[in-house]
Design goal:
With 145 residues, this protein is an alpha/beta fold. 24% of the residues lie in helices and 28% in strands. The protein has a seven-stranded mixed β-sheet. Helix 1 packs across helix 2. The longest helix has 14 residues.
Length: 145
């Protein structure tokens, strides 16, 4: 599925649709080049789940947690990982227990597309806006955003 995102309002609406479908155990894997909109879409999802404050990019912290949201959410940016084995050192599986995961640069963590609960989204710059190429895992079928 391809979703055209011509402006920030469209990105926010797409994030809200993802948030409405999100369940514990889900992964939203966000790929795309620098400036493609991964963090912007993550912020839209987090805001739609009810987070009232700022949403810092986890580029340097790697993981930000939002335990008070429903579902609880982990926002991770794996850009700085040099090898997928580093997610074990971070303890990602412990963070994921009972939470959904927004994963920027998922390929640096070994990827999540093999998981049935993974919604893979590749963001591309398209003119003044963006385009999202969405590939749902098996458990997302029938509830795609």
């Amino acid at each position: 599925m391809i979703v055209d995102l011509p402006d920030l309002a469209a990105m926010d609406a797409f994030g809200a649709r993802i948030a409405a479908a999100l369940r514990p155990g889900d992964v939203v894997a966000l790929s795309g080049g620098l400036g493609a909109g991964k963090t912007t879409l993550s912020r839209s999802v987090i805001a739609a789940l009810g987070h009232p404050g700022e949403v810092p990019s986890p580029t340097f912290t790697i993981i930000e947690t939002y335990d008070s949201l429903s579902p609880p959410l982990i926002h991770a940016d794996f850009y700085r990982l040099e090898h997928p084995s580093e997610i074990d050192e971070i303890g990602l599986d412990d963070y994921r227990e009972g939470a959904a995961l927004l994963a920027e640069w998922p390929e640096n963590a070994g990827g999540f597309a093999h998981e049935a609960a993974c919604l893979s989204i590749t963001l591309e710059i398209a003119g003044e806006g963006r385009r999202a190429i969405v590939l749902p895992g098996e458990s997302w079928l029938g509830r795609e955003p």
